[in-house]
Write a structure and sequence with these properties.
By secondary structure, the protein is an alpha+beta fold. Helix content is 21%, strand content 46%. The chain has a 35-stranded mixed beta sheet that branches. The longest helix is centred in the C-terminal third of the chain and has 32 residues, at 589-620. The chain is rod-shaped and about 160 Å long. 18% of the residues are buried. The model is unreliable at 1-25, 127-145, 339-353, 564-569 and 641-653 (pLDDT under 50).
Length: 653
């Protein structure tokens, strides 16, 4: 028994001497030994700087100063991991059983580079053993018998995370605190990340129930939750090692602009009605090429609700292809300040009819938010000062240029086809080419120009282009052309029939059977020279200008009688002049005086001629009705008088 005790004593002493030698070994020597062992196990270079402190039981641990861990041979030249300090602990008892139970990994200010290329990840480790000979035929199970690998706690403080896929950097985040836990092979991997961003922090919680299956490349379940300043993101579905995902997605924002700023999109204004507050859900499929598809999409954007489907290509800016349906869409407060998004009226309001166009700068930055095509069908769409009825619209976006195609749109009780373009690439310009049928003119003119005197249903076409950063600049720069064709209608405020001397009292209105006109626009001034209005007994021609920029009109109607009106009618031109919100409508007296003067001279001339004919008739003793009969009568009278004188000379009777 004594010899057994002596042997045990010697073993303890020897073990103590070994431990003591390790503890007394200089740090650089110990670091070199550890680096050599890591390279033999992983094939990667490990560089340790500063003193290395070891612990042996129950945790085989190491603490060191600055450290770098090499990348895979096929990956970039930068190390996979670098840190200002590193502490690693492994369960010592588990090593006896071939299990690699990592108790802790703590790193301060680390930089972690994760790279994926052709299905290979730089986090996949392999021993630096020599390649087997061509004649080797060892079974896979014999070649790589492994024990259990688990992780109790991973903590990275103030880290930088870089993820590169096939040479392209997918994300690069700084100031990240990350922790992970996988205590048992059958337990889920739970990962938490915190990152400072403008306005607060982004928190990410990730759960993979079957990490071994995921690591082998199989499709496995994934639960992901992200919270950020202004909103949150949730995903419940499946994922594979390539990052492809399929499952249910939900995005909720309380302040979308704040959330965009947190992810580097500060200053982007979200129009009211398009998601300052948003709740979006659907089934998402994401591919490794960076494309996401959303099906069964339901989007509550502020007070508007859309359903449909969308495909999104993750890029800068994102490319969106969507087909959406909506009910009554309200974008009438599109430019309201965010502070008024939840309530009554915003700070921006429509100008009074006579106050001119707005000089406030137009924020068209939203045109740069995305590229793509969006098709929308809706029961109605309300935009500032205009409401469309049932409409089918297609919006295409390309580098700050938007084209709205109407297929058709219901507007002012009629149908409008064509397109409107807004281009903000080099300053803002707006233009379009439209064709309209069955338009209610009173609604259209009242809404667009504050004019409500013309009633009727019309059709026409319109091309226009305006440039400027304010509404006023655009209106004063307008150019274009168009035409108008109106059926039966009414003009209130003056009565052409009374002015023509026919009616007794028509209630201050003019009822017409048709109206046609064409026009040109240059520098905000609309010119028309061929207006033709047809009424029952006369017609009215029109010519003049409408200064769209200054919101004034100077126009002349000239009525032309189709019948003599039993001598009672008088054509009285009507001039419309002044601000178009309240123009002056009155007869053009200068034209009346000119016409009356011409008529009076003719009357005087006729009276004088009649008196001369009567005098000649009396003198000649015969009836003379015109100048020709007067000449004949005078000739006959002279012949008769000459004949009488000759007979007297010859002595006859």
């Amino acid at each position: 028994m004594k010899w057994l005790l002596r042997i045990l004593f010697l073993f303890v002493v020897a073990f103590g001497l070994v431990i003591g030698a390790l503890l007394l070994m200089p740090g650089d020597k110990l670091a070199a030994i550890l680096a050599e062992q890591v390279k033999s196990e992983t094939g990667r270079e490990l560089k340790l700087t500063g003193d290395v402190n070891l612990s042996f039981w129950p945790v085989l641990g190491m603490e060191t100063g600055p450290v770098t861990f090499g990348n895979a041979p096929w990956a970039s030249s930068e190390p996979m991991l670098s840190a200002e300090s590193l502490a690693v602990g492994v369960d010592a008892a588990g090593l006896w059983n071939g299990d690699f139970r990592i108790r802790r990994v703590f790193a301060d200010q680390p930089t972690l580079r994760l790279e994926l290329s052709d299905g290979r990840g730089n986090w996949e480790m392999s021993a630096a053993s020599s390649q087997p000979s061509s004649g080797s035929s060892a079974a896979p199970s014999e070649a790589s018998a492994q024990g259990v690998v688990t992780l109790d706690r991973l903590e990275l403080t103030n880290a930088r995370l870089i993820y590169t896929e096939n040479g392209a950097t997918k994300f690069d985040f700084s100031n990240v605190d990350l922790s992970a836990s996988w205590p048992d092979p059958a337990a889920p991997l739970i990962m938490e990340a915190r990152m400072a961003v403008p306005g607060g922090k982004v928190n990410v919680d990730l759960r993979i129930p079957d990490l071994p299956a995921y690591a082998s490349g199989a499709v496995t379940p994934l639960e992901l939750a992200l919270t950020a300043p202004g909103g949150e993101f949730g995903f419940d579905g499946r994922v594979n090692l390539a990052g492809e995902m399929d499952g249910n997605l939900e995005v909720k924002t309380k302040d979308t602009e704040k959330m965009l700023a947190a992810f580097g999109q500060a200053g982007v204004g979200v129009p009211l009605g398009l998601g300052r507050v948003a709740d979006v859900s659907g089934h998402m499929t994401y591919t490794k090429e960076g494309r996401a598809s959303l099906r069964n999409l339901v989007a509550q954007l502020d007070h508007n609700r859309f359903t449909g489907e969308a495909d999104i290509e993750i890029s800068d800016p994102p490319k969106i292809t969507a087909r959406l349906k909506g009910g009554d869409i309200d974008l009438s407060r599109y430019n309201d300040a965010p502070a008024t998004a939840g309530g009554g009226s915003g700070t921006a309001s429509a100008s009074a009819p006579d106050s001119g166009w707005s000089t406030d700068p137009i924020d068209a930055s939203a045109l740069a938010l995305a590229n793509g095509e969006i098709r929308l069908t809706a029961s109605s769409i309300a935009v500032p000062e205009i409401t469309l009825g049932p409409s089918d619209l297609a919006l295409s976006l390309d580098r700050s240029r938007a084209v709205l195609q109407m297929n058709p749109a219901t507007l002012f009780a009629g149908q409008v086809t064509g397109q409107v373009v807004a281009n903000n690439r080099n300053g803002l310009s707006v233009g379009g080419k439209l064709n309209a049928q069955g338009i209610d003119l009173q609604q259209a003119l009242s809404t667009l120009a504050g004019v409500d005197r013309l009633t009727g249903s019309g059709s026409g076409d319109f091309e226009f282009l305006g440039v400027g950063q304010t509404e006023d600049q655009i209106m004063r720069s307008l150019s274009g052309k168009g035409g108008l064709n109106v059926g039966q209608g009414v003009i209130s405020g003056f009565d052409l029939d009374r002015l023509m001397g026919r009616g007794k009292d028509a209630g201050g209105t003019t009822v017409f059977n048709s109206l046609t006109a064409s026009f040109n626009i240059d520098q905000g001034i609309l010119t028309n020279n061929d207006l033709l209005m047809s009424l029952d007994n006369f017609r009215a021609d029109g010519t003049g200008q409408v200064n769209i920029g200054a919101r004034t009109i100077d126009y002349l109607f000239t009525p032309v009688a189709l019948r003599a009106n039993s001598g009672q009618g008088l054509a009285v031109p009507v001039r419309i002049v002044g601000p178009w919100s309240d123009p002056s409508i009155k007869p053009d007296l200068s034209k009346v005086i000119e016409a009356a003067a011409e008529g009076k001279l003719k009357d005087i001339e006729d009276d004088a001629k009649q008196k001369v004919l009567e005098k000649v008739s009396d003198e000649l003793g015969t009836v003379v009705t015109d100048s020709e009969s007067a000449e004949d009568a005078l000739k006959n009278k002279l012949e008769e008088e000459a004949k009488k004188g000759l007979l007297k000379l010859l002595g006859g009777n």
